Amino acid sequence: MYGKGAGPKVGSVAVTGVGAVVLPNTGGNTIGTILAYSAITIGVVAIISQLAVRVIRRKYSVEA
Amino acid sequence: MRTSGRLAVSGFATLLIIGGGCYLGMPKLQAALKRHEGAHQNTAALATVTKQTIAQKSFTLQEPIALQLPRLDINLAIKPGTYNAQAQTWSLDRTNAFVMQPVTDRSGAVIPATPVIYGHDIPAVFMHLDGIAADEILHITQSNGITYTFRYVGDVVVKPHDITPLQNKYQNSVLLMTCTGSNFQERRIMRFELVGKQDVAVEVVHEPLT
Predict the structure, then answer these.
(1) Is the omega angle on the peptide bond into residue A8 within 30 degrees of 0, that is, cis?
(2) Domains of chain B, start order
(3) What's the rounded mean pLDDT across residues A22-27?
(4) CA-wise closest residue to B65 among B80, B82, B81
(5) What's the mean pLDDT in A15-44?
(6) Per the CB < 8 Å rule, is A23 touching B161?
(7) A1 in a domain, yes or no?
(8) Distance between CA atoms of B47 and B192, rounded to whole angstroms?
(9) Which of A9, A22, A23, A45 should we substitute to test contact with B (largest number of B Cβ atoms within 10 Å)?
(10) Strand pairing of B103-104 and B110-111?
């Protein structure tokens, strides 16, 4: 849930150990969210790459 | 790359963008519609519910076993939520809500000062709380049969290590808590204020004498 070093920050020192109460980690579907953001990123990069390739080919008159 | 290949890549890329966008955007859109609906319905619904309850000036939450937010279609059993100080985790599962059991913080104070019920930000538990609107109605049933009715009055978003809302004593209130943020990195704490209580009538079925 919370890794070592997690805890309230006092300056640059993390307060950890017994007695430091943290709120429950009630996160939802983290994997689904990561996959969704990844899919959008891959899609956008693929389309931009295609457009870039097309522009470069036109500029330098390279046959497809 | 040939035209058909380019089209295939474009199509696949578009599908990825649409799929990802729907996964992330649809729940937010549904929540926005629910909030809009609640803004128009809640005040009238609260007036009706208030008539059905006995006004209470104060209350003590004892052994809550179920909660219900009728408009948001949330019906959950409540279990005791205990804190593991070594692992810094609270008891949690993906089907129930949990009521925080008292724990002593570093200053020696017992928290939570106000009853806190928490649950996962998933469709089966608290995700539909995204659609909450002013005067949202919450019913909490105790093991002794008493059901308290509350209304939503506001919320606060804090970091996981900020326990200030748990140290504050809010009169005649309960707090619902779940995660929020694009990566569930924050905690949303919603305050509900007491409206009244209603005793659950125990229906006695009499067998006909033969």
Answers:
(1) no
(2) 3-199 (2.40.260.10)
(3) 88
(4) B80
(5) 82
(6) yes
(7) no
(8) 16
(9) A23
(10) antiparallel
* Residues of chain A found within 8 Å of residue B27, distances taken between Cβ atoms: none
Collect all residues of chain B within an 8 Å Cβ-Cβ radius of residue A24.
81, 89-90, 92, 98, 118, 177, 187
Boundaries of domain holding A18: 9-60
Per the document, the length of chain A is: 64
Residue with tokens 């996160």: A27
| ipTM higher than the 0.85 cut | no
For the segment B69-115, what is each residue's pLDDT rounded down to a tens digit? Answer: 999 999 999 999 999 988 889 999 999 999 999 998 888 888 999 99
Return the residue matching tokens 């593991």: B84
| Total number of domains in chain A | 1
Question: Which residue among A21, A28, A33 places its CB closest to the CB of B127?
Answer: A28
The answer to whether residues B137 and B45 touch, using CB atoms and an 8 Å cutoff, is yes
Note whether A19 and A10 are within 8 A (CB).
Answer: no
The token duo for B197 is: 């209580």
What was the pLDDT predicted at A13?
A: 35
Q: Structure pTM?
A: 0.80
Contact B92 A23 (CB under 8 A): no
Do residues B51 and B44 lie in contact, with contact meaning Cβ atoms separated by under 8 Å?
A: no
Q: Tokens for A48?
A: 């931009």
Q: Is residue A4 part of a domain?
A: no
Query: Minimal Cα distance from A37: which residue of B?
Result: B20
Q: How far is A45 from chain B (nearest CA, A)?
A: 8
Closest residue on chain A to B14 (Cα): A43
- In-domain check, residue A45: yes
